[in-house]
Sequence to fold (143 residues):
Amino acid sequence: MSSASQVRGTCYCGVIRFAVDLPVKWVAHCHCDICKQIHGAPVTTWVGSEADRFHLLAGTEQLTWYASTEAGERARCQTCGTQLFFRSPRWPDEIHITRTSFRGPVGKEPGGHAYFDRHVDWLNLGDELPRFGGPSGNEPLDT
Fold:
């Protein structure tokens, strides 16, 4: 059970369980080509947490880390295939966790769209969140 200062999450099958001490750093939608391909979805929503506030509670042996780029790696559950985590030397003190893997509120709503210049044109998002893009995915876009 989560306390008011912590939120928990799992993979789809529940073999991997984790907790994050609140507050989280940020929540954002990602439209990068890698997220779209790996998740099989037009957008992935990530939660950024300080690495020392993240706790893997169960399923370490079922967690597979793999290089998704030269500068980053992702983790998935070997049993059900759920894509769960991302880490990179670009943000050495953070871990990024898929928002849908949490089983409760994370205390923040999405604050923007990263890599929006790569978004699919067949999904109407209909929100007023800031849009970012460019090589880093974090440069303001004039939309």
Remarks:
- The chain has a mean pLDDT of 94.
- The domain at 6-140 is CATH 2.170.150.70 (Metal Binding Protein, Guanine Nucleotide Exchange Factor; Chain A).
- The radius of gyration is 15 Å.
- The chain has one helix and twelve strands.
